[in-house]
Specification:
The protein is of the alpha/beta class. It contains 13 helices and 14 strands. This is Oxidoreductase.
Amino acid sequence: MPQPAADAEAGTIGVGFLGAGPVTQAIHLPSLARLGGTFHVAHVMDVDAAVASAVAARVGATPSASMEALLDDPAVDVVAICSPHQFHAPQVIAACRAGKKAVLCEKPFAVSAEEAAEIAAVSAQTGVPIIVGAMHTFDPGWLAAEEAAGSLLQDAHTLRSSIVLPPNARFEDFATEVIARPAPAEQDLEDPAVVAAVLEGGILGLAIHDLPLVRRFVPDFSDLEVLRAEAVRPFGYVVLVRAGGRTVELTAQMSSAAPAAWKPDWTFEAIGPDSALKVTFTPSYVQAGSAVAALTAGGRTAVAGPFDHNGYEGEWRRIAGIVAGTERAPAASDLIDDLRFALAIVDGARAHVLEAAA
């Protein structure tokens, strides 16, 4: 006989979602379904009560249109914040003050260094750990690459994040039937202010997955300078940065062209005088497989991966370990510096675009 839902959830970690959009539906719910012996979805909140109800019904969770209702729900052990960027900081702080066991916040977890510092202070005061959903940092392929990189961490002269993807909707539809997907907005790329906004969205929405990896090679970015910043049609960016004596190349292109014309690709590279690392990630929203890392040194290439799970699942595995007391949360100082690095690139890109237009 089927196991009653209450019995199936006994002893598992209850998750509450603030925001029930495509990221919740197509990324986190499938990830948690694979970890059903560890987690269950207890509560789904969205400002659109109909969306909250529809998504919650899929997983047998309580729906609401109120953050307070979710935070007051004793069945919620971990809060996952999947709302628009501008709401992240106050929601993270509220979840910490509610005394939850952990918080997973989609990137970026704040939109200013001041907000990030306030989050870190509240997390330290309440003892509630925070995970930021830059999924590549939790991918076992990247973790194997980082462990094997050796002197390349100090010697790399060029770092490259290259992304070629279809619009998110294509992979979202592979994962689930998305309820209430936001309509894309038209962008006037002749307007420098619009270009600056597109670059900000691209850096904080796409590049930010790889920027913590870049920063592993560039711990000191006090001299950061953006040398080039362009928006790419229909959506994408080309950004060239110098920081810490290293060149950082960030490129992305999202196109709805026929898939037969090109292959989705997401790679991170670190190139040094005597060795090079290439990490090939699965596209965003794809739930199968980890990254594959290839480290070339001394004329030989060592390959790590693919492993049995990806970074999305890795985030949740890390949270399970934190709740169980077997793993530690990332240091707040690292999360703040990762955000400061991303914001410094955003500011430099904006300044570059507006100066060029003046």
